[in-house]
Specification:
mainly beta; four-stranded antiparallel sheet; 1 helix; 10 strands
């Protein structure tokens, strides 16, 4: 599908992490951009959050929630866009991991954390370990019948 809008990938994408100076950020980060829609688009569209690294993304158009993204494919359906200036907002909800740690763990991210996660000398490293929070870019493209997430395919 040919995109109607696709943002450029920034140097470190979009979000709050060590690259943007917010390594310990906890909460919801709201990122928005105005879009000048030159004509009414009455056909359904997908808005896709590409390279999503946050556990939850909430997509809003002009302050109205379009949907929450919690698993792949990282997209929600829009019921078209009216002509005029529209505000696309992505709210990124993260976890307590980067605030609470473990911050000095060597190796892959653990699937669970307990007291041993903070005192395991064999897996210690001096530098900090953070999980990313954000996304790479956004793409808006036309809805195509055969291009539905498996959970909502028409029968």
């Amino acid at each position: 599908n040919k995109p109607i809008l696709e943002t450029e990938k920034g140097e470190s994408g979009f979000g709050a992490d060590i690259d943007t100076g917010y390594p310990f950020f906890v909460g919801t980060l709201s990122l928005s951009q105005e879009l000048d829609v030159k004509r009414d688009i009455n056909d359904p569209l997908w808005i896709e959050v590409m390279g999503l690294k946050s556990p939850v993304a909430i997509v809003l158009i002009d302050g109205e929630e379009c949907g929450k993204i919690v698993w792949k494919p990282h997209r929600v359906e829009l019921q078209g866009l009216a002509q005029g200036i529209r505000t696309i907002e992505i709210r990124l909800v993260n976890t307590l991991r980067n605030l609470m740690g473990p911050h000095h763990r060597l190796g892959p991210e653990p699937s669970s954390v307990g007291a041993n996660s903070f005192s395991d000398g064999a897996n210690w490293k001096d530098s900090y370990s953070f999980v990313p929070n954000g996304f790479d870019r956004i793409r808006i493209y036309p809805y195509v019948e055969g291009n539905l997430p498996s959970a909502v395919k028409a029968s």
